[in-house]
Amino acid sequence: xxxxxxxxxxxxxxxxxxxxxxxxxxxxxxxxxxxxxxxxxxxxxxxxxxxxxxxxxxxxxxxxxxxxxxxxxxxxxxxxxxxxxxxxxxxxxxxxxxxxxxxxxxxxxxxxxxxxxxxxxxxxxxxxxxxxxxxxxxxxxxxxxxxxxxxxxxxxxxxxxxxxxxxxxxxxxxxxxxxxxxxxxxxxxxxxxxxxxxxxxxxxxxxxxxxxxxxxxxx
Amino acid sequence: xxxxxxxxxxxxxxxxxxxxxxxxxxxxxxxxxxxxxxxxxxxxxxxxxxxxxxxxxxxxxxxxxxxxxxxxxxxxxxxxxxxxxxxxxxxxxxxxxxxxxxxxxxxxxxxxxxxxxxxxxxxxxxxxxxxxxxxxxxxxxxxxxxxxxxxxxxxxxxxxxxxxxxxxxxxxxxxxxxxxxxxxxxxxxxxxxxxxxxxxxxxxxxxxxxxxxxxxxxxxxxxxxxxxxxxxxxxxxxxxxxxxxxxxxxxxxxxxxxxxxxxxxxxxxxxxxxxxxxxxxxxxxxxxxxxxxxxxxxxxxxxxxxxxxxxxxxxxxxxxxxxxxxxxxxxxxxxxxxxxxxxxxxxxxxxxxxxxxxxxxxxxxxxxxxxxxxxxxxxxxxxxxxxxxxxxxxxxxxxxxxxxxxxxxxxxxxxxxxxxxxxxxxxxxxxxxxxxxxx
Lengths: 219, 439
What we know:
Number of strands of chain A: 7
Order of helices and strands of chain B: HHHHEEHHHHHHEHHHHEE
Shape of chain A: globular
Structural class of chain A: alpha+beta
Oligomer: heterodimer
Largest sheet of chain B: 2 strands, antiparallel
Helix content of chain B: 55-70%
Distance between the termini of chain A: 54 Å
Number of helices of chain B: 14
């Protein structure tokens, strides 16, 4: 830590005066901060004062400021410890991603990994393909429309699109995606989507074992 | 002496070196053609002019090359004239220069393994070590000329390895390439490097062989001092040369090793990514399958935990300062006032307050009196109060307050009993008794 006597002395720095408030708002909203776009200055501030901020959030909020790397790019976020949510306990202060959001996030993770050498742009055509023509189309249709049909009405399709837009808006708030063109439903998946893969890393790495175990328990 | 030479060079440099790329390319083209017997040597005017035209095409020049001009530039050092129908012949200097330049860029040279150059230029047979003369011959005619060739080959090899490593970086940066084709490209590059690596290893072995053979022959040259001196000097030169070769090859080896490690890592990464990709898809399929059909919100199996994120989006609430005139833009009507009514109301309210004050005063007084004298006759007292205040409402409200206070004061209780037939059967009298307990 910078000032040995007062670990909060960094709050008096010029950088803190300029960027701490914005940083705090974003982190406490659950946003993943990356070195790009509108978060660049905030990212630099966190990068420079990481230890101080880490202490700040741990001491005062009981949550952990974490920085993960994805292909040598670092992103920051707040996360709960295994034991508690710190001062974020309570329904008004934290929320869970919905199951549909998690599944959609995993779909985006798949896209992200597929586009290994290219920009991680996704458009409605790709989503459309996944939902209506891809290998798991029946499963997606059952989730999104509660019914598997060969044709959906324009209203139903619009409903799906709107649901997706809502989820993408939420993901943009937490810094997992960035809209490129909302009208045409084009968005970029950001590296911090990696967070989802880390949270479920055990399940993904051991998916076969997990499936066997669960099936055994159910039989 | 050195300075003089440099001065001479400075004076003649425009003539000694090809003046431009057209000249150099022409010399190289003429050399290649004569070397491969595409044109006779010496060659004629037509051969010369045709070659100039070929160089024009190669360089895609808008303006043609002035044949007389270029012939004049090359006439001093690059060709000589001879008698006969074909009067032009390239000088030895022109041929050597052309060969040097061509070898620098000849990809075929880069593909030749170093071992071939070693074997071709530095063979050491037992008969080369028979005596001092044969050793001296080998040194002058094989070893010394071969040094230049071997170093040149090593330099080209260095360049080739650098090019391949650069190619690796470019492959990695290619957008839109799928992993399989990237790996194929990598493997192709590494195929080339592997061949060269093998050549280097064999060259090093050959080098060790030559040195060993040379060292083993020391007894043959130990009889005479001058033979021994020749042998020692040759051995020293060969050892020193091989040391320099070792140093240069070590650098190339390092680059190949680093590139190889990079490829290995990349391959492992691709392998891991591929497996991860498969796992991820399977994971997605599994959780898609697990969605419950009964409820709106899907259920995950208990083994898959929930994804909790800190989320605090409460907005700071503030009270607005509304400028009403600005807000509505409507003028308020002035309200009319009934002063007489207001006065009556004010007087009535005042009377009510006075009444309440009186009632409160009497209530407190009575409570004190009850406390002091539990046997007090409440009826008589209330009548006295009525007489004094001349208002029946006062004693009634006092009574009501006393009843209410019983709830608050556990020492005071009231008993209500009915006195029947007070006046007639339709009229009843209720008696209220206060019971005050000191305990």
